[in-house]
Write a structure and sequence with these properties.
Chains A, B: One of its GO terms (cellular component) is plasma membrane. The structure is a homodimer of 486-residue chains. With 486 residues, chain A is mainly alpha-helical. Chain A contains 23 helices and 6 strands.
Chain lengths: 486, 486
């Protein structure tokens, strides 16, 4: 269907052959015939060494075009192997907002290397953007754009645009400021070109301007683009001076970022900015275990509710059938049943964290179906560590509850068996839920079903039944004697 | 902070005063000084009659600018009250892709009225877009754009652009085709203007073009915009001819639509396209009950697992403590406990459907905190109807399970009490969960907490404990005699 689905593999092979054969001019031609994004994607499939070699064969301005499309680890490798002079030349060709995007993801030694090799002017610009709070308009704005003056004529404006066209972002409207850099209007490129040369800019511009401040939250920035159907948005500082613009193509990434954040939060995952495979296991453990812990501890409420009702149901007056302490009926109704809500809740939450992450990553193409084994391996490690945290917390939780319930006298093997049953079951179901949560969306996609639709309901059903079965099976082992003996 | 937060109310009052005083020229001035989106928002706050009066005072091209920003119900009202001639004039000023957007939401009598009053040419265009499958590139493309020819000079191209500038979408790059309408290249407006007038277009254009087909899924369209950082994307038909373009501002709506779809699906809500308050109660009942039904029926699996284990635990060999049929111990372990997973699962799912919808609607500003009462009223009606469906299905489910379990002999009051307990508890918890699910995100937003973070975990905790308590309380009423009698 689409022109660039077949090409990438082929393109990658072509590039590799040209590098191996050292055909420099052919390589340059090939690169010029394709989109930088495609070239970067094709090159990314090569060994890092070969990428470096390929880039050495290309001119700096071409490398700069490709560079921003590489993943952060390749960018890091390139900056690492480049000399100071090369870094300087490369970054001179890249727009400041892209540099900021890159630097935000890099380790500090790389950031230092880049800043050391930037011109004082661009270092100032980079730092001015870096200083804005994350997710504010200031942190995502561009500072390279052409400003027009109210006092100019159309002809003067066109000259300035022509002069600056290589160094500014390609946009179709320009902002007009007065001598004090106060925003006065906006003017379309077409309007400017079709106007009489001597017309004053102030007569051509539209004075209705939508703007936000550097401190405005990026969510609000998105709203402006949506509401007014605009292509660029001017950014003012607190003194109402024009300091930057945001272009619509940058906003697209922000929209997806915000949606991902919302999706993750609703599944009880603390937001992480990076793509699935870019997020370390430990970071994932942290972002997931906070809510799992909170939810497990909150489940105590349901556990108590069940306990209370079990007592009421068991307190019949005749005494004939009254449940004796430590009998098997007592164990089932007073110890195990109240824990059902804790085990199935934790399993369900853990599973839906994983499936939510994978569903979103699949829809953003951060994860492909072929990454199946990598996902399983990552989920396994995350689950093993998260399990340790949860089980430890649960141990303390259980001991505390029993200590209160049995007025400090928790020295009954049945209580410890019950704690052991829940602990072991919780660890096992956590691992199983996370593996199934990672597996189901990929499986759904593989058989061409919608991962979002398939994963959630199937997951709940499977994980619920499985966790219950595991819990009661382990209970059987610990309480076998009581079941036999009565 | 932002220029347009205070204005809307004020603007609305100003407009109302000008209408009441019949100050036509002042109204026209006011409208021209503001963005169409703001004017539409301000007017929307007035009575429908006043909106119609206001629009009659404005010229058709101004009305056309505002018109697309109104909600569908206001648009419908306007078309209804307009004469055929007025409709014709109005829609001549609106871009075809916007007309299609509007028509897709309108009842068929309105669609007929509009199509009847369109020129044959634009009727053809509208129908050509309407025929494409929903969510395909064809269904969201624009057909009004300027095409350039490979054989033209820069001067000729500029003349054509100047001529067509009023009727085509404002874009900064143009597509170049050959005599057979095959896409040959893309050219920037700037390149064109700064080129020597006699240069041939084929020498100026960039032959690297990203394109998709009319049948391409909109998700793939989004990917192209993200990957290549482009502002427009050309659309080809199956014969590889250029038939339309998609501009980046239209893609923003599509991105949010796709994210909303994913979010809803993950919460077990069949996707509906409309905003929260635009979706009818009955449509919501349908979009939610499908998955609630599926999940409730799937919960049978967990119910069986618990039943099986309860039997094993109760089957101790000595017989001394063996649970007698229809005793209170039997009722608790064999009848009520296996239903725990069904009641808390259904309550949780129903609640998270509501909270997910409200969280998303809040973040897209479709719902504001002041809509609190409206949300509660809507959720109450949705829950009442959904409850009827679920409880009926559950009745059949329970009778079937007991019929199998008790080999057709279900004529024991205890079994019917158990069915009644679950049915009543399910109806009550469904309503309560949906109300809490709608309430929590709004409450969170009101006290300036993040609705997405606060709603999910709190909801689970509250709904779980509440549904369990309601279930066992109702059970107490039905089984009081057995508890007392033993």
């Amino acid at each position: 269907m689409d022109h660039n689905i077949i090409n990438i593999e082929e393109l990658s092979n072509k590039i590799e052959t040209l590098i191996d054969d050292n055909k420099v001019s052919h390589l340059r031609e090939l690169v010029e015939d394709h989109y930088p994004a495609d070239i970067a994607e094709a090159m990314s499939k090569l060994e890092e060494k070969k990428i470096i070699v390929a880039l050495r064969l290309l001119s700096t301005d071409v490398v700069a075009e490709i560079f921003t499309y590489f993943d952060y680890d390749i960018q890091e490798e390139i900056i690492n192997t480049y000399s100071s002079q090369q870094v300087k030349e490369l970054f001179e060709e890249i727009f400041t907002d892209d540099i900021v995007d890159i630097l935000e993801e890099m380790p500090s030694n790389i950031v230092k290397k880049v800043l050391r090799n930037s011109s004082p002017e661009s270092r100032l610009q980079i730092n001015s953007i870096l200083k804005y709070e994350e997710q504010s308009a200031g942190s995502i704005m561009s500072v390279e754009y052409t400003k027009l003056r109210t006092t100019w004529t159309a002809k003067q404006a066109i000259e300035v645009i022509k002069e600056q066209r290589e160094e500014t972002e390609e946009i179709s409207s320009f902002y007009v400021v007065d001598g004090l850099n106060n925003l006065k209007g906006i003017i379309e490129l077409k309007t400017l070109f079709f106007a009489k040369p001597e017309t004053s800019i102030s007569n051509l511009m539209d004075e209705r301007i939508v703007y936000v401040y550097t401190s405005t939250d990026q969510e609000h920035v998105i709203e402006q683009f949506k509401k007014y159907d605009i292509i660029t948005l001017p950014i003012l500082n607190s003194q109402n001076k024009l300091v930057g613009i945001i272009t619509v193509d940058d906003v697209i990434d922000v929209i997806e970022e915000e949606a991902t954040e919302d999706i993750h939060k609703m599944a009880g995952i603390s937001p992480t900015e990076d793509a699935y495979f870019k997020t370390s296991v430990w970071k994932m453990v942290r972002s997931r275990s906070v809510w799992l812990l909170f939810l497990m501890i909150s489940a105590t409420l349901s556990q108590i509710v069940i306990s209370v009702f079990m007592k009421i149901y068991n307190s019949n007056s005749t005494g004939e059938q009254q449940v004796e302490q430590w009998s098997i009926s007592y164990i089932v109704t007073m110890l195990l049943t109240p824990l059902l809500t804790v085990i199935s809740g934790t399993a369900g939450n853990a599973g839906s964290q994983s499936s939510t992450m994978i569903v979103r990553a699949l829809s953003l193409r951060e994860v492909e179906t072929k990454d199946f084994a990598r996902v399983m391996w990552k989920e396994l490690r995350v689950a093993s560590l998260t399990g340790l945290i949860l089980v430890s917390a649960n141990f303390i939780r259980m001991v505390s509850i029993y200590a209160v319930e049995y007025k400090g006298d928790i020295n009954h093997p049945e209580l410890w068996y019950s704690i052991a049953t829940l602990s072991i079951a919780m660890y096992l179901t956590l691992i199983i839920s996370k593996l199934i949560g990672g597996l189901l969306p990929i499986l759904a996609k593989k058989i061409k079903l919608d991962p979002a639709v398939m994963a959630a309901p199937l997951l709940t059903t499977i994980v619920d039944a499985l966790s219950t079965a595991i819990f009661f099976s382990i209970g059987l082992i610990f309480f076998w004697q009581q079941i036999q003996g009565g």
